[in-house]
Amino acid sequence: MKNDKYASHNNISLLARLREGDLEAFNILYNRYWSVLLDESYKRLEDLASCEEIVQDVFIDLWEHCSKREILNVEAYLFTCMKYKVFETYKKSKRRNVLIAENKQLYQSQEVVDGNTYGEKDLKSLIEQWVSNLPQKRQEIFKMRYLDGLTTKEISELTKTSQNTVQNHLGASIQKLKKLVLQHFLTLLMIFYTCK
């Protein structure tokens, strides 16, 4: 390699230099192992962009932690890091695919209106089901407020419950409902971009 004074050095020597912050030694290791790590990670994931990111992360990890960790074999260290990062990427991808698979069938039958993939009817059905599963008192208060349009004071008088308790019931319900709607929306987004 042109102008690389450590190119003929073995990995032990390069590792010692790297611990001292020698960028040239790092570049030699990078050039020595970049393509083989990329090939090995690609065999496992078959996603070039993800594999390039993984290998980049492996070398960033080596540069940042070399002086703090007891690395005896730099090649083994690089391959172990790569395998770990591939496994983590695979796990994330698998979780995402499971979520999509569980919900895809439900949304495939959803009509697309005016180019909008957000299933309004399905969301309404989801909320109705969610409300029906609320505890009796909370369900009653929720319906009075958001279906009948009563104020918290009116609900308090009708249910013989303090206004503060009514507000607490409503606050807890709305917080959970927001999470439900957000999950629904995110699932639809993932399905939309996966099916494109």
From TrEMBL:
<dbReference type="GO" id="GO:0006352">
    <property type="term" value="P:DNA-templated transcription initiation"/>
</dbReference>
<dbReference type="InterPro" id="IPR014284">
    <property type="entry name" value="RNA_pol_sigma-70_dom"/>
</dbReference>
<dbReference type="InterPro" id="IPR013249">
    <property type="entry name" value="RNA_pol_sigma70_r4_t2"/>
</dbReference>
<dbReference type="GO" id="GO:0003677">
    <property type="term" value="F:DNA binding"/>
</dbReference>
<dbReference type="InterPro" id="IPR036388">
    <property type="entry name" value="WH-like_DNA-bd_sf"/>
</dbReference>
<comment type="similarity">
    <text>Belongs to the sigma-70 factor family. ECF subfamily.</text>
</comment>
<keyword id="KW-0804">Transcription</keyword>
<dbReference type="InterPro" id="IPR013324">
    <property type="entry name" value="RNA_pol_sigma_r3/r4-like"/>
</dbReference>
<keyword id="KW-0731">Sigma factor</keyword>
<feature type="domain" description="RNA polymerase sigma-70 region 2">
    <location>
        <begin position="29"/>
        <end position="95"/>
    </location>
</feature>
<dbReference type="InterPro" id="IPR039425">
    <property type="entry name" value="RNA_pol_sigma-70-like"/>
</dbReference>
<dbReference type="Pfam" id="PF04542">
    <property type="entry name" value="Sigma70_r2"/>
</dbReference>
<feature type="domain" description="RNA polymerase sigma factor 70 region 4 type 2">
    <location>
        <begin position="128"/>
        <end position="176"/>
    </location>
</feature>
<protein>
    <recommendedName>
        <fullName>RNA polymerase sigma-70 factor</fullName>
    </recommendedName>
</protein>
<keyword id="KW-0805">Transcription regulation</keyword>
<dbReference type="Pfam" id="PF08281">
    <property type="entry name" value="Sigma70_r4_2"/>
</dbReference>
<dbReference type="GO" id="GO:0016987">
    <property type="term" value="F:sigma factor activity"/>
</dbReference>
<dbReference type="InterPro" id="IPR013325">
    <property type="entry name" value="RNA_pol_sigma_r2"/>
</dbReference>
<dbReference type="InterPro" id="IPR007627">
    <property type="entry name" value="RNA_pol_sigma70_r2"/>
</dbReference>
